[in-house]
């Protein structure tokens, strides 16, 4: 197996069969992605997609989580940055997810631990997603006063608009079994230690099929989805998250998370839940 470590946030390995594995490697923040990780992921996926020796791409996370989504420290910088800088951030993230979804080779997400916010988006943008039974998922953006804009189309395409509303509006955690039942996952294994064996079964099946046919299948299915993620859709999602990210509610949400405090809109003990 050839191993190449990208400078900072990823590990990359390609085996003799052309199975590439990208491991997000910021375990100290549950593999939350910042500007650098977005750039490195985009570069890695672009290069592997264009490499004739690569047959499929596996996306995994180092440590206890798959990914805790966007880095809140980085998201919070929105209040100091210009509208144009925020929009560029969102466009870069939208482009990175698009590169994964649009990759002409099969892509597989390997989820252990947590997939939160943009982490769910990464799994949804992959063709196949596997998880261990203890994995938990949440489309958690609304907890911070923002929304799953850029990841939205991929989540909707994976689980449909009805389940996407539930996931995004409640922002609550679901189990791997629930994620399997709603179509976000393709297989759940009992323990994280069994993930690699499950991955091998999927890889062996995927390698039996014509690579060009697989590229055509992906292009065709992308046109048949609930909503094709066109350039216009991506721009709409980028415009939306960059606007909401700069708002007062988001500022309060990010600050509350970093201070390990509840956001101001969270009901406090003693609030009367029956009041109307
Ligand atoms: C992961 C747990 C459950 C661990 O919960 P825990 O085990 O209680 O540990 P913790 O909360 O103390 O976290 C450990 C360390 O990881 C950091 N950390 C952890 N997550 C992040 C993060 N995302 N960004 C930045 N830092 C993060 C956290 O700040 C802390 O740093 P320390 O205090 O030790 O210095 C908890 O930290 C948590 O809930 N994190 C937030 C996860 C989340 O909701 N992510 C969604 C981000 S928004 C997003 O992805 C937007 C996007 C891109 O989808 C928008 C769009 O699509 O348009």
TrEMBL record:
It comes from the Bacteria. Belongs to the enoyl-CoA hydratase/isomerase family. The lineage of its organism: Bacteria, Pseudomonadati, Pseudomonadota, Betaproteobacteria, Burkholderiales. Signal peptide: none annotated. PANTHER family: ENOYL-COA HYDRATASE, POLYKETIDE BIOSYNTHESIS ENOYL-COA HYDRATASE PKSH-RELATED. One of its GO terms (molecular function) is methylglutaconyl-CoA hydratase activity. This is Methylglutaconyl-CoA hydratase. It comes from Roseateles oligotrophus. Keywords: Lyase. InterPro entries: ClpP/crotonase-like_dom_sf, Enoyl-CoA_hydra/iso, Enoyl-CoA_hydra_C, Enoyl-CoA_Hydratase/Isomerase. Its EC number is 4.2.1.18.
């Amino acid at each position: 197996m050839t191993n190449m470590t990208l400078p900072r946030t990823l590990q990359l390995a390609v085996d003799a069969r052309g199975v590439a594995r990208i491991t997000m490697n910021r375990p100290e923040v549950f593999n939350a992605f910042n500007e650098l990780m977005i750039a490195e992921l985009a570069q890695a996926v672009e290069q592997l997609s264009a490499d004739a020796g690569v047959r499929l791409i596996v996306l995994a996370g180092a440590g206890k989580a798959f990914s805790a989504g966007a880095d809140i420290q980085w998201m919070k910088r929105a209040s100091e940055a210009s509208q144009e800088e925020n929009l560029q951030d969102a466009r870069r993230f939208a482009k990175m997810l698009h590169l994964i979804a649009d990759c002409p080779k099969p892509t597989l997400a390997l989820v252990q631990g947590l997939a939160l916010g943009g982490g769910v988006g990464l799994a949804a943008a992959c063709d196949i997603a596997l998880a261990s039974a203890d994995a938990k998922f949440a489309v958690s953006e609304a907890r911070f006063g923002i929304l799953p804009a850029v990841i939205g189309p991929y989540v909707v395409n994976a689980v449909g608009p009805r389940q996407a509303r539930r996931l995004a509006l409640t922002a609550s955690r679901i189990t791997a079994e629930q994620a399997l039942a709603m179509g976000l996952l393709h297989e759940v294994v009992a323990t994280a230690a069994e993930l690699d064996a499950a991955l091998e079964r999927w890889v062996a099946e995927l390698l039996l099929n014509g690579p060009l046919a697989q590229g055509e299948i992906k292009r065709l299915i992308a046109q048949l989805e609930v909503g094709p993620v066109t350039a216009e859709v991506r721009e709409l999602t980028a415009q939306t998250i960059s606007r909401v990210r700069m708002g007062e509610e988001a500022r309060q949400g990010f600050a509350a998370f970093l201070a390990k405090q509840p956001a101001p809109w969270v009901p406090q003990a003693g609030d009367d839940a029956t009041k109307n």
